[in-house]
Design a protein that fits this description.
Elements lengths: L3 H29 L4 E5 L15 E5 L3 E5 L5 H7 L4 E4 L15
Antiparallel strand pairs: 1-3, 1-4, 2-3
Keywords: Signal
Length: about 100
Amino acid sequence: MFSITKARTFLLTAAAILSSWYAASAVLFAVREEGKAAIVLLPTHGLSPNGLPPGVSILKWGRYFAVLASDKPGYVPALYAAGALIVLPSRAGGCLSLRPPVAR
């Protein structure tokens, strides 16, 4: 029988795993900077479009996330220094884009 306690334990475990995954992704992206585009979660809580580091351009700006791009090395730590809460890598085909790029 599936009880409330088991459901709560399952949901808390799932939330902890998901939070750990996003935290690990953010740390690895800050260290390795693989990718020219980044997703900033909750950009309005500390980051402003006018306060972006030099060389960082806005691809999309919304209330809950912003997609930013830069060719300059060190732009991810610069985003954190400018007030970004969480910076995650952005893939061209979405976060589940696991297929290799097609040569044209």
